[in-house]
Fold each of these.
Amino acid sequence: MSVARVLSGAILGLAASIALAADPDQAIRSTLNSLEPGLPIEAIAESPFTGLYQVHLKGGRLLYASADGKFLLQGNLYQYRDGEAINLTRQAESKGIAKEINAIPTSEMVVFSPKEPAKAHITVFTDTDCGYCQKLHSEVPELNRRGIEVRYVAFPRQGIGSRGYNTLVSVWCAKDRKEAMNLAKSRENVPAATCTNPVAKQYELGQMVGVSGTPSIILGNGEMIPGYQPAPQLAEIALQAK
Protein backbone atom coordinates (compact mmCIF):
# COMPACT_ATOMS: atom_id res chain seq x y z
CA MET A 1 0.00 0.00 0.00
CA SER A 2 1.37 3.39 -1.04
CA VAL A 3 0.04 6.25 1.09
CA ALA A 4 1.65 8.69 -1.35
CA ARG A 5 -0.32 7.11 -4.18
CA VAL A 6 -3.55 7.51 -2.24
CA LEU A 7 -2.93 11.19 -1.65
CA SER A 8 -1.77 11.91 -5.17
CA GLY A 9 -5.09 10.55 -6.36
CA ALA A 10 -6.93 12.73 -3.89
CA ILE A 11 -5.13 15.85 -5.05
CA LEU A 12 -6.44 15.30 -8.57
CA GLY A 13 -9.95 15.46 -7.17
CA LEU A 14 -12.62 12.89 -6.48
CA ALA A 15 -14.69 11.36 -9.22
CA ALA A 16 -18.11 12.96 -9.57
CA SER A 17 -19.70 9.53 -9.31
CA ILE A 18 -18.75 9.10 -5.64
CA ALA A 19 -21.96 9.56 -3.72
CA LEU A 20 -21.99 11.25 -0.35
CA ALA A 21 -22.59 8.53 2.23
CA ALA A 22 -24.97 8.83 5.13
CA ASP A 23 -22.24 8.97 7.78
CA PRO A 24 -18.53 9.89 7.95
CA ASP A 25 -17.34 6.27 8.19
CA GLN A 26 -19.14 5.36 4.95
CA ALA A 27 -18.12 8.55 3.16
CA ILE A 28 -14.44 8.21 4.04
CA ARG A 29 -14.32 4.50 3.20
CA SER A 30 -16.03 5.18 -0.14
CA THR A 31 -13.41 7.78 -1.03
CA LEU A 32 -10.42 5.71 0.00
CA ASN A 33 -11.70 2.52 -1.63
CA SER A 34 -12.23 4.38 -4.89
CA LEU A 35 -8.65 5.66 -4.80
CA GLU A 36 -6.97 2.52 -3.46
CA PRO A 37 -9.15 -0.62 -3.56
CA GLY A 38 -8.28 -2.96 -0.73
CA LEU A 39 -6.67 -0.28 1.42
CA PRO A 40 -6.29 -1.98 4.84
CA ILE A 41 -8.47 0.30 6.96
CA GLU A 42 -8.69 -0.90 10.56
CA ALA A 43 -10.81 1.88 12.04
CA ILE A 44 -12.14 5.39 11.44
CA ALA A 45 -12.78 7.67 14.40
CA GLU A 46 -13.03 11.33 15.29
CA SER A 47 -9.67 12.96 15.91
CA PRO A 48 -9.03 15.40 18.77
CA PHE A 49 -9.42 18.19 16.19
CA THR A 50 -13.12 18.96 15.73
CA GLY A 51 -14.40 17.99 12.29
CA LEU A 52 -11.34 15.93 11.37
CA TYR A 53 -11.43 12.13 11.33
CA GLN A 54 -8.44 9.84 11.71
CA VAL A 55 -8.14 6.73 9.56
CA HIS A 56 -6.15 3.93 11.19
CA LEU A 57 -4.45 1.69 8.63
CA LYS A 58 -3.15 -1.78 9.36
CA GLY A 59 0.42 -1.44 10.54
CA GLY A 60 -0.20 1.72 12.55
CA ARG A 61 -0.13 4.35 9.80
CA LEU A 62 -2.59 7.24 10.00
CA LEU A 63 -4.46 9.39 7.50
CA TYR A 64 -6.90 12.22 8.18
CA ALA A 65 -10.14 12.99 6.38
CA SER A 66 -13.05 15.38 6.46
CA ALA A 67 -16.43 14.00 7.50
CA ASP A 68 -17.68 13.98 3.90
CA GLY A 69 -14.56 12.21 2.63
CA LYS A 70 -13.78 14.98 0.15
CA PHE A 71 -10.55 16.12 1.82
CA LEU A 72 -7.61 13.88 2.78
CA LEU A 73 -4.49 14.78 4.68
CA GLN A 74 -1.26 12.98 5.47
CA GLY A 75 0.96 14.52 8.11
CA ASN A 76 1.39 15.20 11.79
CA LEU A 77 -1.32 16.60 14.02
CA TYR A 78 0.01 18.52 17.01
CA GLN A 79 -1.74 19.71 20.14
CA TYR A 80 -0.40 22.64 22.10
CA ARG A 81 -0.49 21.55 25.74
CA ASP A 82 1.28 22.86 28.85
CA GLY A 83 3.66 24.98 26.84
CA GLU A 84 4.74 22.35 24.33
CA ALA A 85 3.58 20.83 21.06
CA ILE A 86 2.48 17.18 21.44
CA ASN A 87 2.66 15.07 18.28
CA LEU A 88 -0.68 13.24 18.44
CA THR A 89 -0.08 11.46 15.14
CA ARG A 90 3.18 9.99 16.31
CA GLN A 91 1.59 8.80 19.55
CA ALA A 92 -1.27 7.07 17.72
CA GLU A 93 0.99 5.48 15.10
CA SER A 94 3.38 4.20 17.76
CA LYS A 95 0.51 2.40 19.50
CA GLY A 96 -0.47 0.74 16.23
CA ILE A 97 3.11 -0.29 15.47
CA ALA A 98 3.56 -1.68 19.00
CA LYS A 99 0.44 -3.80 18.50
CA GLU A 100 1.86 -5.33 15.31
CA ILE A 101 5.36 -5.90 16.66
CA ASN A 102 4.23 -7.33 19.99
CA ALA A 103 2.12 -9.86 18.08
CA ILE A 104 5.26 -11.47 16.61
CA PRO A 105 6.13 -14.63 18.60
CA THR A 106 9.69 -14.50 19.92
CA SER A 107 10.06 -18.01 18.46
CA GLU A 108 10.06 -16.31 15.03
CA MET A 109 12.85 -13.89 16.00
CA VAL A 110 16.56 -14.14 16.72
CA VAL A 111 16.77 -13.02 20.34
CA PHE A 112 19.82 -11.94 22.34
CA SER A 113 18.87 -11.72 26.00
CA PRO A 114 20.75 -10.39 29.06
CA LYS A 115 21.90 -12.90 31.68
CA GLU A 116 19.66 -11.19 34.20
CA PRO A 117 15.95 -10.51 33.52
CA ALA A 118 15.63 -7.85 30.83
CA LYS A 119 14.71 -4.32 31.88
CA ALA A 120 13.45 -3.43 28.39
CA HIS A 121 13.58 -4.73 24.84
CA ILE A 122 14.07 -3.44 21.32
CA THR A 123 12.99 -5.06 18.06
CA VAL A 124 15.38 -4.50 15.16
CA PHE A 125 14.53 -4.90 11.49
CA THR A 126 17.87 -6.04 10.13
CA ASP A 127 19.74 -6.95 6.96
CA THR A 128 22.94 -8.92 7.44
CA ASP A 129 24.71 -7.01 4.62
CA CYS A 130 24.02 -3.60 6.17
CA GLY A 131 27.14 -1.92 7.59
CA TYR A 132 25.32 -0.09 10.36
CA CYS A 133 23.43 -3.29 11.22
CA GLN A 134 26.80 -4.95 11.70
CA LYS A 135 28.00 -2.07 13.85
CA LEU A 136 24.87 -2.27 16.00
CA HIS A 137 25.29 -6.02 16.34
CA SER A 138 28.83 -5.56 17.64
CA GLU A 139 27.28 -3.58 20.52
CA VAL A 140 24.62 -6.16 21.41
CA PRO A 141 26.74 -7.48 24.34
CA GLU A 142 26.85 -3.92 25.76
CA LEU A 143 23.10 -3.53 25.30
CA ASN A 144 22.58 -6.84 27.09
CA ARG A 145 24.89 -5.70 29.88
CA ARG A 146 22.67 -2.66 30.32
CA GLY A 147 19.59 -4.85 30.59
CA ILE A 148 18.27 -4.52 27.02
CA GLU A 149 17.00 -7.57 25.15
CA VAL A 150 17.63 -7.36 21.40
CA ARG A 151 15.03 -9.04 19.17
CA TYR A 152 15.88 -9.33 15.48
CA VAL A 153 13.36 -9.56 12.67
CA ALA A 154 14.28 -9.82 8.99
CA PHE A 155 14.25 -7.02 6.45
CA PRO A 156 16.19 -7.93 3.27
CA ARG A 157 16.65 -4.50 1.70
CA GLN A 158 16.99 -5.83 -1.85
CA GLY A 159 13.74 -7.76 -1.59
CA ILE A 160 12.55 -11.34 -1.75
CA GLY A 161 14.95 -13.67 -3.57
CA SER A 162 17.99 -11.39 -3.18
CA ARG A 163 21.33 -12.56 -1.81
CA GLY A 164 20.56 -10.83 1.49
CA TYR A 165 17.18 -12.58 1.62
CA ASN A 166 18.83 -15.98 1.11
CA THR A 167 21.34 -15.25 3.86
CA LEU A 168 18.57 -14.28 6.27
CA VAL A 169 16.69 -17.48 5.41
CA SER A 170 19.84 -19.46 6.21
CA VAL A 171 20.13 -17.64 9.54
CA TRP A 172 16.52 -18.33 10.48
CA CYS A 173 16.82 -21.98 9.40
CA ALA A 174 20.09 -22.63 11.24
CA LYS A 175 20.16 -25.00 14.22
CA ASP A 176 21.68 -22.15 16.24
CA ARG A 177 20.17 -18.90 14.99
CA LYS A 178 22.25 -16.68 17.25
CA GLU A 179 25.51 -18.24 16.11
CA ALA A 180 24.40 -17.95 12.48
CA MET A 181 23.53 -14.28 13.05
CA ASN A 182 26.94 -13.70 14.61
CA LEU A 183 28.59 -15.23 11.53
CA ALA A 184 26.49 -13.19 9.11
CA LYS A 185 27.10 -9.92 10.95
CA SER A 186 30.85 -10.68 10.97
CA ARG A 187 30.73 -11.09 7.18
CA GLU A 188 31.54 -14.76 7.48
CA ASN A 189 29.90 -17.55 5.50
CA VAL A 190 26.62 -18.85 6.86
CA PRO A 191 25.94 -22.48 5.83
CA ALA A 192 23.02 -22.53 3.40
CA ALA A 193 19.82 -23.83 4.92
CA THR A 194 16.14 -23.83 4.03
CA CYS A 195 12.99 -24.42 6.04
CA THR A 196 9.58 -22.94 6.66
CA ASN A 197 10.54 -19.45 7.82
CA PRO A 198 9.06 -15.98 8.52
CA VAL A 199 11.57 -13.90 6.54
CA ALA A 200 9.20 -12.85 3.74
CA LYS A 201 6.38 -12.20 6.22
CA GLN A 202 8.61 -10.01 8.37
CA TYR A 203 9.83 -8.10 5.32
CA GLU A 204 6.22 -7.35 4.36
CA LEU A 205 5.44 -6.32 7.94
CA GLY A 206 8.39 -3.93 7.92
CA GLN A 207 7.11 -2.25 4.78
CA MET A 208 3.64 -1.99 6.29
CA VAL A 209 4.82 -0.24 9.47
CA GLY A 210 7.02 2.18 7.53
CA VAL A 211 10.51 0.64 7.57
CA SER A 212 12.51 2.02 4.66
CA GLY A 213 16.05 1.11 5.68
CA THR A 214 18.09 -0.84 8.19
CA PRO A 215 18.61 -0.98 11.02
CA SER A 216 15.15 0.21 12.00
CA ILE A 217 14.70 -0.05 15.75
CA ILE A 218 11.28 -0.37 17.36
CA LEU A 219 11.11 0.53 21.04
CA GLY A 220 8.80 -1.20 23.49
CA ASN A 221 6.18 1.54 23.08
CA GLY A 222 6.18 1.23 19.28
CA GLU A 223 8.27 4.32 18.58
CA MET A 224 10.59 3.81 15.62
CA ILE A 225 14.23 4.89 15.51
CA PRO A 226 15.36 4.89 11.87
CA GLY A 227 19.05 4.05 12.02
CA TYR A 228 21.99 3.17 14.22
CA GLN A 229 22.33 4.58 17.72
CA PRO A 230 25.33 3.96 20.02
CA ALA A 231 24.61 1.39 22.74
CA PRO A 232 24.67 3.77 25.75
CA GLN A 233 22.28 6.21 24.07
CA LEU A 234 20.03 3.45 22.70
CA ALA A 235 19.84 1.69 26.07
CA GLU A 236 18.76 4.91 27.79
CA ILE A 237 16.05 5.54 25.18
CA ALA A 238 14.82 1.93 25.44
CA LEU A 239 14.57 2.10 29.22
CA GLN A 240 12.53 5.30 29.01
CA ALA A 241 10.16 3.74 26.44
CA LYS A 242 9.47 0.39 28.12
Amino acid sequence: MQSAITAEVVEPYAEALMSLAQQKNITDAIGDDVRSLLTLIQESPELKTFLASPLVKAEDKKAVIKQVAGEQINPFLLNFLLLLVDKKRIGFIEGVCSKYLEILRKLNNIVLAEVTSAVRLYEGEAEKLVTKIKNITGATGVEIQTKIDPDIIGGVIIKVGSQVYDASLKGQLRRISLNVLGI
Protein backbone atom coordinates (compact mmCIF):
# COMPACT_ATOMS: atom_id res chain seq x y z
CA MET A 1 0.00 0.00 0.00
CA GLN A 2 1.34 3.40 -0.95
CA SER A 3 1.79 6.12 1.62
CA ALA A 4 0.15 9.50 1.00
CA ILE A 5 3.56 11.08 0.43
CA THR A 6 4.49 8.45 -2.15
CA ALA A 7 1.13 8.98 -3.91
CA GLU A 8 1.75 12.74 -3.97
CA VAL A 9 5.03 12.13 -5.80
CA VAL A 10 3.99 9.20 -8.00
CA GLU A 11 0.68 10.46 -9.40
CA PRO A 12 1.83 13.79 -10.89
CA TYR A 13 4.81 12.15 -12.60
CA ALA A 14 2.72 9.27 -13.96
CA GLU A 15 0.09 11.74 -15.18
CA ALA A 16 2.79 13.90 -16.80
CA LEU A 17 4.20 10.85 -18.59
CA MET A 18 0.69 9.92 -19.76
CA SER A 19 0.06 13.47 -20.97
CA LEU A 20 3.28 13.41 -22.98
CA ALA A 21 2.46 9.96 -24.39
CA GLN A 22 -1.03 11.13 -25.41
CA GLN A 23 0.38 14.21 -27.16
CA LYS A 24 2.74 11.99 -29.14
CA ASN A 25 0.06 9.28 -29.61
CA ILE A 26 2.34 6.63 -28.11
CA THR A 27 0.46 5.63 -24.93
CA ASP A 28 0.52 1.88 -25.70
CA ALA A 29 4.16 1.90 -26.86
CA ILE A 30 5.21 3.68 -23.67
CA GLY A 31 3.05 1.18 -21.75
CA ASP A 32 5.01 -1.72 -23.27
CA ASP A 33 8.31 -0.04 -22.38
CA VAL A 34 7.08 0.70 -18.86
CA ARG A 35 6.09 -2.97 -18.38
CA SER A 36 9.58 -4.07 -19.50
CA LEU A 37 11.19 -1.51 -17.20
CA LEU A 38 9.06 -2.65 -14.24
CA THR A 39 10.00 -6.27 -14.87
CA LEU A 40 13.68 -5.34 -15.06
CA ILE A 41 13.53 -3.42 -11.76
CA GLN A 42 11.54 -6.13 -9.98
CA GLU A 43 13.93 -8.84 -11.16
CA SER A 44 17.03 -6.84 -10.19
CA PRO A 45 17.05 -5.74 -6.54
CA GLU A 46 20.58 -4.42 -7.12
CA LEU A 47 19.35 -2.00 -9.80
CA LYS A 48 16.47 -0.90 -7.59
CA THR A 49 18.82 -0.24 -4.66
CA PHE A 50 21.34 1.53 -6.92
CA LEU A 51 18.70 3.90 -8.35
CA ALA A 52 17.17 4.66 -4.95
CA SER A 53 20.49 5.27 -3.17
CA PRO A 54 21.16 8.91 -2.26
CA LEU A 55 24.88 8.07 -2.13
CA VAL A 56 25.10 7.35 -5.87
CA LYS A 57 25.79 10.39 -8.05
CA ALA A 58 23.14 11.49 -10.53
CA GLU A 59 25.60 11.13 -13.43
CA ASP A 60 26.25 7.50 -12.47
CA LYS A 61 22.51 6.77 -12.29
CA LYS A 62 21.99 8.37 -15.70
CA ALA A 63 24.87 6.36 -17.20
CA VAL A 64 23.38 3.10 -15.89
CA ILE A 65 19.88 4.01 -17.13
CA LYS A 66 21.27 4.82 -20.59
CA GLN A 67 23.28 1.60 -20.62
CA VAL A 68 20.45 -0.64 -19.37
CA ALA A 69 17.49 0.93 -21.17
CA GLY A 70 18.91 3.32 -23.76
CA GLU A 71 18.31 1.70 -27.15
CA GLN A 72 15.42 -0.54 -26.08
CA ILE A 73 12.98 2.11 -24.87
CA ASN A 74 11.27 5.08 -26.46
CA PRO A 75 13.48 8.24 -26.32
CA PHE A 76 10.66 10.13 -24.56
CA LEU A 77 10.62 7.56 -21.75
CA LEU A 78 14.42 7.66 -21.54
CA ASN A 79 14.35 11.45 -21.19
CA PHE A 80 11.59 11.10 -18.57
CA LEU A 81 13.78 8.69 -16.55
CA LEU A 82 16.71 11.10 -16.76
CA LEU A 83 14.41 13.90 -15.56
CA LEU A 84 13.42 11.74 -12.57
CA VAL A 85 17.12 11.43 -11.73
CA ASP A 86 17.56 15.24 -11.97
CA LYS A 87 14.53 15.80 -9.72
CA LYS A 88 15.80 13.18 -7.24
CA ARG A 89 12.64 11.12 -7.82
CA ILE A 90 14.11 8.05 -9.55
CA GLY A 91 13.61 6.08 -6.31
CA PHE A 92 9.87 6.28 -7.03
CA ILE A 93 10.21 4.71 -10.50
CA GLU A 94 8.29 1.53 -9.62
CA GLY A 95 5.35 3.51 -8.30
CA VAL A 96 5.38 5.88 -11.28
CA CYS A 97 5.43 2.94 -13.71
CA SER A 98 2.62 1.12 -11.89
CA LYS A 99 0.51 4.28 -11.78
CA TYR A 100 1.11 4.92 -15.50
CA LEU A 101 -0.11 1.39 -16.30
CA GLU A 102 -3.16 1.93 -14.07
CA ILE A 103 -4.02 5.15 -15.94
CA LEU A 104 -3.44 3.39 -19.29
CA ARG A 105 -5.79 0.53 -18.31
CA LYS A 106 -8.52 3.02 -17.34
CA LEU A 107 -8.02 4.88 -20.61
CA ASN A 108 -8.38 1.66 -22.63
CA ASN A 109 -11.15 0.11 -20.41
CA ILE A 110 -8.86 -2.75 -19.44
CA VAL A 111 -8.96 -4.38 -16.02
CA LEU A 112 -6.04 -5.89 -14.17
CA ALA A 113 -6.78 -9.39 -12.91
CA GLU A 114 -4.43 -10.93 -10.38
CA VAL A 115 -4.77 -14.68 -10.87
CA THR A 116 -3.35 -17.09 -8.31
CA SER A 117 -3.24 -20.77 -9.25
CA ALA A 118 -1.65 -23.89 -7.80
CA VAL A 119 0.14 -24.61 -11.09
CA ARG A 120 1.01 -22.61 -14.19
CA LEU A 121 -1.98 -21.81 -16.40
CA TYR A 122 -1.95 -23.11 -19.94
CA GLU A 123 -2.79 -20.80 -22.84
CA GLY A 124 -6.30 -22.21 -23.32
CA GLU A 125 -7.06 -21.81 -19.62
CA ALA A 126 -5.81 -18.23 -19.59
CA GLU A 127 -8.00 -17.39 -22.61
CA LYS A 128 -11.08 -18.86 -20.88
CA LEU A 129 -10.28 -16.79 -17.78
CA VAL A 130 -9.94 -13.61 -19.86
CA THR A 131 -13.37 -14.25 -21.43
CA LYS A 132 -14.94 -14.93 -18.03
CA ILE A 133 -13.38 -11.80 -16.48
CA LYS A 134 -14.58 -9.67 -19.42
CA ASN A 135 -18.12 -10.99 -18.88
CA ILE A 136 -17.99 -10.32 -15.13
CA THR A 137 -16.50 -6.82 -15.37
CA GLY A 138 -17.78 -5.53 -18.69
CA ALA A 139 -14.24 -4.45 -19.60
CA THR A 140 -13.08 -4.50 -23.21
CA GLY A 141 -9.76 -6.07 -22.24
CA VAL A 142 -8.06 -7.93 -19.43
CA GLU A 143 -4.43 -7.83 -18.34
CA ILE A 144 -3.49 -10.86 -16.25
CA GLN A 145 -0.80 -11.00 -13.59
CA THR A 146 -0.25 -14.60 -12.51
CA LYS A 147 1.12 -15.99 -9.29
CA ILE A 148 1.74 -19.62 -8.41
CA ASP A 149 0.73 -20.72 -4.90
CA PRO A 150 0.71 -24.50 -4.34
CA ASP A 151 -1.10 -23.93 -1.01
CA ILE A 152 -4.41 -23.31 -2.81
CA ILE A 153 -4.26 -27.00 -3.86
CA GLY A 154 -6.18 -26.50 -7.13
CA GLY A 155 -8.40 -24.05 -9.00
CA VAL A 156 -7.79 -20.30 -9.07
CA ILE A 157 -8.27 -17.12 -7.08
CA ILE A 158 -9.02 -14.07 -9.22
CA LYS A 159 -8.72 -10.54 -7.84
CA VAL A 160 -10.04 -7.67 -9.95
CA GLY A 161 -9.86 -4.37 -8.09
CA SER A 162 -11.43 -5.02 -4.69
CA GLN A 163 -13.44 -8.03 -5.91
CA VAL A 164 -12.08 -11.50 -5.13
CA TYR A 165 -13.43 -14.63 -6.81
CA ASP A 166 -12.18 -17.68 -4.92
CA ALA A 167 -12.57 -20.83 -7.00
CA SER A 168 -9.68 -22.60 -5.29
CA LEU A 169 -9.94 -26.02 -3.73
CA LYS A 170 -8.58 -24.58 -0.47
CA GLY A 171 -11.36 -21.93 -0.50
CA GLN A 172 -14.02 -24.56 -1.20
CA LEU A 173 -12.74 -26.72 1.67
CA ARG A 174 -12.79 -23.70 3.99
CA ARG A 175 -16.40 -22.92 3.03
CA ILE A 176 -17.43 -26.55 3.57
CA SER A 177 -15.79 -26.61 7.02
CA LEU A 178 -17.58 -23.37 7.97
CA ASN A 179 -20.91 -24.87 6.86
CA VAL A 180 -20.28 -28.07 8.83
CA LEU A 181 -19.42 -26.04 11.92
CA GLY A 182 -22.54 -23.92 11.40
CA ILE A 183 -20.63 -20.65 11.20
